[in-house]
Amino acid sequence: MEATGRNRRAGRKEIRYPYKDKRFFPLMWPAQAMGLEEKRIILPMGRDRSSLVLPRPAWLSRKSACKVVWNGLHNELHVTLVESTTDPNSQGITERCATVDFGQIHHAAVVTNNGNALVVSGRGMRTIKRLHSKHLGEIQKKRS
Questions:
Q1: How many CB atoms lie within 10 A of CB 29?
Q2: Which three-class secondary structure string do you get for 40-99?
Q3: Which of 32, 31, 68 has its CA nearest to residue 53?
Q4: Buried b / exposed e across 89-106, counting CB within 10 Å, b at 16+?
Q5: pTM of the predicted model over 0.85
Q6: CB neighbours (10 Å) of residue 111?
Q7: Which of 1, 32, 46, 111 has the highest CB neighbour count under 10 A?
Q8: 108 near 120, Cβ under 8 Å?
């Protein structure tokens, strides 16, 4: 039996169970909701609210599902892409998918369904940021 159930049955109402309210929710749009124009992406926000208008990257050629996610510092647009190509060696259309995992030490780890992988290391940038913070701390210490 769980501790939660035991405490409730015992009438212990003063105990507050851990919970955390979400402060940020990712906003999601299916491919059919995305509006594509020549130089911009239009994401509708619903009735009586203005749409999000973002610059369109050159690599985005057709509508696709996307979401706006808060990463702790700023908002990011995550776009789901499905690329279909005709391989001359195969009989028909093959689909290639890639999954990207964003991290802190390694900025991105990319894996495709045909076994190719790529890791973009961010250690160099991390050391520069750490050294910058260290120098700022020394300057602040000398100023006080």
A1: 19
A2: EEEECCCCCCCCEEEECCCCCCCCCCEEEEECCCCEEEEECCCEEEECCCCCCEEEECEE
A3: 68
A4: eeeeeeeeeeeeeeeeee
A5: no
A6: 15
A7: 111
A8: yes
